[in-house]
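Q: Start with the shorter request: fold the first protein.
A: Done. Sequence, then structure:
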Amino acid sequence: MPAKPEINLKNKLKEVFGYNQFRGNQELIINNIINDRNTFVIMPTGAGKSLCYQLPALSLPGTAIVISPLIALMKNQVDQLNAFGVNAHFLNSTLSKSEINKVKKEIMAGEVKLLYVAPESLTKEETVEFLRGANISFVAIDEAHCISEWGHDFRPEYRRIRGIIDQIGKLPIIALTATATPKVQLDIQRNLQMDEASVFKSSFNRTNLYYEVRPKHNTKKQLIQYVKKHKGKSGIVYCLSRKKVEEIAELLRVNDVKALPYHAGLEPNVRMKNQDAFLNEDADVIVATIAFGMGIDKPDVRFVIHYDTPKSIEGYYQETGRAGRDGLEGNCLMFYSYEDIVKLEKFNKDKPVTERDNSKLLLQEMASYADSAVCRRKQLLHYFGEAYEKDCGFCDNCLHPKERFEAQHEVQLGLRAVQLTNQRFTIEHITAVLTGLKNQYTTSYDHDKLEVFGAGKEHDVQFWSSLLRQILLSEYLEKDIENFGVVKLTQKGLDFIQNPQSIKITKDHNFEQEVKEDEEKEGTQAAAGHDEVLFDLLKNLRKKLAKEKNLPPYVLFQDPSLKEMATVYPTTKEDMAHIGGVGMGKVQKFGKPFLDLIVKYVEENDIVTAADVVVKTTVNKSKIKIYIIQQIDKKVDLEEIASSKDLTMRELIEEIEHICYSGTKLNLNYYINSILDDERQDEIYDYFMQASTDNIGEAVKELGTDNYTEEDLRLMRIKFLSEYAN
């Protein structure tokens, strides 16, 4: 076999990619591949993984195969390489027969340096047959964590890769991932038969990233405030469902944020257009499912927001890793609710048992991370098998520390429970033993007979789970790599059992309590939160105008609308249209004098308006409301409309009321005439014309339940307001 020519890697790096020097382990990894050695790379997002196989591919004769899980990722990387003047192609389901033949022809002519292939395409017999006859330099397996069933993104077809490579020929392999726990790392190496591979593991610590977790409460309002605080900066908002992606993208857009959606349900050309708009800074924010961002090389993403709780810490770490890839500011905010965890567990119910159990453990880890008041960075690094001694001082928990308490006795008891159950069980099982919970596991293993059974029942399951996880972080316990979820004692833990010492534990967050306190605070503020002087001025103006128009005052604007105006000080038609119960129709009809008054009041009193914290909504744009308006225009029976949208009559009337309060005129005469005669309609009309309020409870009291149902009165109120208020 002829000796390989000397390659000046630094020259190649500068000539093709424009970099003057390598980062971290890149040069060592590239040399390892060039020397035909199997290589396993664990490197966080943004640390330059792709260069580790791209540069050796350019330096070696033949074509390198890159196995990649996402079509969007392939296209993005191929486009980038083509821009550098590198001949790279992909083979996947988006190509036509003639395009595939063209790619194959170029490979056989030795013109292609990198060929990106989806694992599904690689398993096709004709692809294997073709590659067997080509000059292949090596195989790179990107997103290698997909191999492991213990990981967060397991793909069964990835487990067949080794067998297919063997069919193609004896080739060196480089496997790369940004997220691998010690357990996943072991599984990848075993499956690829790479036990002897050189392993290059970079630190998972992204020092420029700030991690924060907030409870899901007034989430839309918090989101708008947060994004507006970072106005003009690039950001990604991750949601769990396509429907939520569309809703949040629209919410941001109506609140003057340049935002676009990205998910697998969009037409490929729309998806690509939105991705390009984000990369080219024509959009500031992309709202996406996790399908977005894998391999997207945008260095200046300044914030990553998880609107919904992610499915695993691996997924969370990988997605937050898209922030601050240039080493500058990167903010990572997650909105957390245990309800999200419950919802995600329900999604897993149809999976095979092992996969379901694994998913449950990953979700438990996610919930524990969110609830924990310990340094976020320490938790993340520990999860990936990396020790981090001190607190980082740069996460929400470090900047706002929670109370710590002495726990010498409890720690000794927890460690003893692990010891007496023979170090073969999960944290969940140990907490059941300590709290004295009799279930099929504690009884079948006779753990209900142990001296520690129920010895910690003065504390709840959450307390013990938090304590055990904290002593895991402090290395009194360690994870059993061979058995997923199982914890064992370290020497430090054994020593503590024999010789216990003072130890402080941090109290977890109690997000439910925090939300409750926030709601109470908001309730108090709402009770007296509006500007009383402005409210009185607005009421007087309403009374004066109503008198001139010979209408009851509430027809113009109701009290809650005036209170909101006296809280947020709308100074434009658009701002006023987003006040509850107003809408553009009412603004056009009655708004000008009220706006003039507010503008003058704001100027005279030097008030900073709260327009930036008003969450504008898209009520009138929602599909169901448009559908209802169209059906009413066509004079369709209301029962029929309700039935077609699976609504009760009460729910339909509520929807119609929202439409009416937002200023849209509706003609319900065709339906009302079928249930009420003219005389009864006139009686209700006269009542609303004279009444000081349009409250239905008051109307029922005045007109009597024997004569009219609540439904009759609500429909007549809609008719009345449509004719006079809209």
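Q: Next, the second protein, separately.
A: Sequence, then structure:
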Amino acid sequence: MEPVGTVRCPVGTSEFTFVTSDSKRLKTGEFVYYLLDSKKVLCRVVKRSPLRTYPDSFLSNPKIHPSKVMEALGIEDFAKLFEVKACVMGYYDKKLGFVNPRIPPPPGEPIYLAEGEEVQKTLMKKKVGERGSLHIGYLLNRDEDVPVTLDASLVASEHLCILASTGSGKSYLSGVIAEEFMKPYNKAALLILDPHGEYHTLKEIEGMEEFVDGSYRPRVKIFGKNDVKIRLCELEYGELVSILPNLSDKMEAMLKNAYETLPDKFTSEDLIKAILEVDSESYTSRALIWRIKRYIQSMDVIDDYVHMELKDILKPGQLSVLQLYEMSDLEQQVLVSVLLNRILNARIAAEKGKESSEMLEYPVFVIVEEAHRFASKDSKSYDIMRTILSEGRKFGVGVCLISQRPSKIDSDILSQCMTQIVMRIVNPYDQENVKSSIESIGRDMLDELPGLTKGQAIVSGVAINAPVMIRVRERLTTHGGMSRDSPSEWEKWISLIGEEKRKIVKQKNARLFWE
């Protein structure tokens, strides 16, 4: 391998500059290396600028390129040299893993362009197709395909977040991740909470050979509004209180007294009877009963008798999509709160060997779309989201938060996502929230956020050895969240109207002819 540059000087303990004449390959985000005791120490290009610029007088005539002026004067074109700033990342050791030597190269040391195989070996914890791998894309700045993979075990146990502006491709990427989790080398127990109805196309997985291995064939179940129910008696007292708005102290005290007299399995009518037994005549009891009828009995997602079994929606080798788009925001938050609480309790019971009516003997992974709806402090599901993000990893409950408004997600929750994928973000408040909540991405890479295009992302965290910029791989299944082509639909609609009008005219002329 021929050198592409020569070290000019170190900048602190982890950065250095080198000089190069390579104007095409050494882009921001590219990987180079230097040799340290025969080890290839990988470095990332942070910045590139001309070493010297042309004199202003050489730029006075835009019709003549300054290089032609220098050629005419017999001067070597020094503007072809560039100063490149790079940060030291480290090297891979079979015994120690990823090692950062904390030693920049000395002046005069040759710098080499890192081979794709070397980048994979150094930065990726897993190879493509290996058990526990998630192949999500390719290095952004390479013409050849250099695969980028994540460690599925660390993603599922340490939590993941995908943050991006609308139209950046976050739902497309989450579809890629869902595909990878259902591959034969993972066989995940996967649940997707889908507020927009974008993930139904993952049903195509069942008919694809890429997901089949021997007897293993993944199953995809789509649950609509009528399939998703919460039995009233599954609600904890705090969840019940949170559903009923504007409760006075007297109302809450009355509800508490009535709730404590109820059996393990009760209906909304049982709750009303219990309140009447506490007090049947006061304004407080009438107001409380009105709220129960208005906000519990009329809520479709809450049922007196239907019980949704956890093992129907969560089992290894099955992807379940809960479509929430026909539910109100309140119903969505109540459902997410109760469901996640049941999942966590079922996993705790299994891990600690406790007697419980519900047990999940295997880890689970939950993808939460529009996570800012469920992880902000004013959400009904905030408490359980915070609990799972901080404690879920101990019990095998992993979460992926997907949001276009990271500034609305509580920073404590966001900081618990130990693997981060950040796509294009333009809103300055969201940018600042990402910078303050995600420490593993350097400022130089975060400055790239507004310039990323659709399908490009920065990946960092525990599931990969060092931050990289990627382009997302192509999905195997159809993307269900495609933007509409409005002009085409308008034209189609007008054409249909025109055709209907022509039919009416023909029918009218035919009647006149026969009359």
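Q: Describe the second briefly.
A: The two ends are 91 Å apart (CA to CA). The chain is about 30% helix and 20% strand.
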